[in-house]
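ingest -> validate -> predict -> emit
validate: passed (alphabet ok, no gaps, 265 aa)
predict: started
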Amino acid sequence: MSMGIDLDFDAVGEIMQEAADNLVCPRFCCLDAESIHSKSHKNDLVTIADLETEVFLSQRLMALLPGSVAMGEEAVYRDPRNRAYLDGDDPVWIIDPVDGTANFARGNPAFGIIVALVHHRQTLAGWIYAPLERRLFTTERGGGCWCAGKRLSMNTRDRGALSTLTGTLGRRMAERLGKVFGTITQSGCAAHDYISLCEGRLDFRLFRLLFPWDHAAGVLMVEEAGGCVRLLSGDFYAPIFQKADGLLIAPNADLWEDIRHALVS
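emit:
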């Protein structure tokens, strides 16, 4: 691996696949009430699959890269002091053990596993695994975005028709951009949104919740696939705990500017 860190890049994906096969997929559509709990509100769920997968990934990934630390979504919820890892000198594994937990708990197949490797507030590499499809998406800074040996690009399809929100916002953006707009439904899973963006099936996306376990890997994938990612403020994204802002993703900088203008004006 580049960036001055010696890492078996492929082994990370293998560890994620092992976690999915043994801890996540066997629980899909098989959870009982005692295996699902609410956290901050009734729709903020955690399952036994989240908890066991995070422990498994944390232990295996830290062993794969001696001297690294792990910061998982569930560990941060239990002890917010774990956020301080991002300010330290050690490489940090940022882990979302089951992204789209609410979907997973309700039998919706839109869920995934996300892992990013961050050092000094810069994402070096990212992995997104879609367990039910058995598809692994990988990226390394300066090395492109890949799935099944194919390098992905966000700029290879006709962008004449874009997808966005319907209603007043959709009409306003259609008028400003002169585009025909379709409809999107929220997937409830950042992993699937980033996969759809990199494969050209989702034309743009605006995220409001910016937890690093949801976005560190995906943002790097989009950038390596040729897309444009910025906060609505215009600043570059960093894998930290952001203040209130939006994260806008588009296939290129010109379209990003047009969409931002339509959104904020």
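Residues 9-151 form a domain with the Fructose-1,6-Bisphosphatase; Chain A, domain 1 fold (CATH 3.30.540.10).
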